[in-house]
């Protein structure tokens, strides 16, 4: 098994925990570090130790999940906290023996250090779990919302007389009217603002190609060039003009026009 304890441990949540815990430890100065260290030394001490603890915790968590993948979540969390506390409390004690004088170390009890580390570790684990569960629930709710909006019937269809199953392929503007081109080959005109028509198409994914053109995303075959200008090619064979303003939306979805030839560039 190949571990990546450093790169795997570095993420936004870990950095936030690292910075917040370091600030609290520097201010509080546990294990007599406040009384026996200056601010600079104390900052370096706790920033380094807490950074090491994050890498250690990630390595232990990865090992437990690898060797006991079916372990109950609560049991797994308790085992991780216990192993980490045993190892880290020993590191704290050893580091203090190297840095602090004998008098400062005389009052340090291994059991007290272990209990303190275990308590802090357990508290951080609970916070971490609440945050992860909250993010997961938010992501699930977002996915459900997207899925629901992608399957709901566009409100604009209620304004039309359409054959059952017919869909809007594209929309264009003609003076004060919106022209709807349907999948059954028919066209219908509505007296309304184009922006309102686009808004009422929510539920059927689509993109603007121009300030006066909209296409259904599932009808896009690709993007091409005609006489030096980019056009969206639909599966119906129709070509719809594509302006620079809306080009990036198609490129993000894998639709990009071929680069213009040298001859085309010189004649434009």
Description:
This protein is an alpha+beta fold. The protein has two domains: 5-150, no CATH class; 156-267, LytTr DNA-binding domain (OB fold (Dihydrolipoamide Acetyltransferase, E2P), Beta Barrel), CATH 2.40.50. Helices cover 56% and strands 16% of the residues. The chain contains ten helices and eight strands. The chain has helices spanning 5-9, 12-28, 33-36, 39-67, 73-99, 102-106, 110-151, 194-199, 244-251, 262-267; strands at 168-174, 177-182, 187-191, 206-210, 213-216, 220-226, 229-234, 239-241. The strands form two sheets. It has a five-stranded antiparallel sheet with strand order 3-2-1-5-4. A hairpin with a 2-residue loop joins strand 6 and strand 7 (229-234). Helix 4 (39-67) runs antiparallel to helix 5 (73-99) and helix 5 packs across helix 7. The chain starts with a helix and ends with a helix. 17% of the residues are buried.
Write the layout of secondary structure elements.
Blueprint (H helix, E strand, L loop, with lengths): L4 H5 L2 H17 L4 H4 L2 H29 L5 H27 L2 H5 L3 H42 L16 E7 L2 E6 L4 E5 L2 H6 L6 E5 L2 E4 L3 E7 L2 E6 L4 E3 L2 H8 L10 H6 L1
Antiparallel strand pairs: 1-2, 1-5, 2-3, 4-5, 6-7, 7-8
Helix pairs in contact: 2-4, 4-5, 5-7
């Amino acid at each position: 098994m190949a571990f990546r304890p450093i790169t795997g441990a570095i993420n936004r949540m870990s950095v936030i925990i690292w910075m917040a815990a370091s600030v609290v430890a520097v201010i509080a100065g546990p294990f007599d570090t406040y009384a026996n260290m200056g601010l600079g030394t104390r900052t370096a001490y706790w920033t380094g130790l807490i950074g090491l603890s994050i890498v250690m915790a990630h390595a232990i968590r990865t090992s437990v999940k690898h060797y006991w993948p079916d372990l109950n979540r609560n049991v797994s969390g308790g085992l991780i906290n216990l192993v980490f506390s045993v190892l880290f409390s020993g590191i704290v004690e050893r580091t203090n023996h190297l840095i602090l004088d004998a008098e400062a170390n005389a009052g340090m009890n291994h059991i007290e250090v272990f209990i303190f580390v275990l308590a802090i570790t357990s508290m951080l684990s609970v916070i971490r779990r609440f945050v992860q569960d909250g993010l997961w629930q938010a992501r699930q709710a977002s996915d459900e919302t997207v899925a629901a909006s992608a399957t709901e019937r566009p409100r604009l269809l209620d304004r039309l007389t359409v054959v059952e199953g017919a869909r809007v392929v594209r929309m264009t503007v003609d003076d004060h009217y919106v022209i709807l081109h349907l999948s059954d080959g028919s066209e219908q005109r509505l007296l309304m603002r184009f922006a309102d028509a686009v808004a009422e198409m929510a539920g059927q994914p689509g993109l603007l190609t121009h300030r006066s053109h909209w296409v259904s995303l599932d009808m896009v075959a690709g993007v091409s060039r005609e006489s030096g200008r980019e056009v969206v090619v639909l599966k119906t064979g129709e070509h719809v003009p594509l302006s620079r303003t809306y080009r990036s939306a198609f490129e993000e979805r894998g639709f990009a026009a071929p680069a213009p030839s040298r001859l085309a560039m010189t004649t434009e």
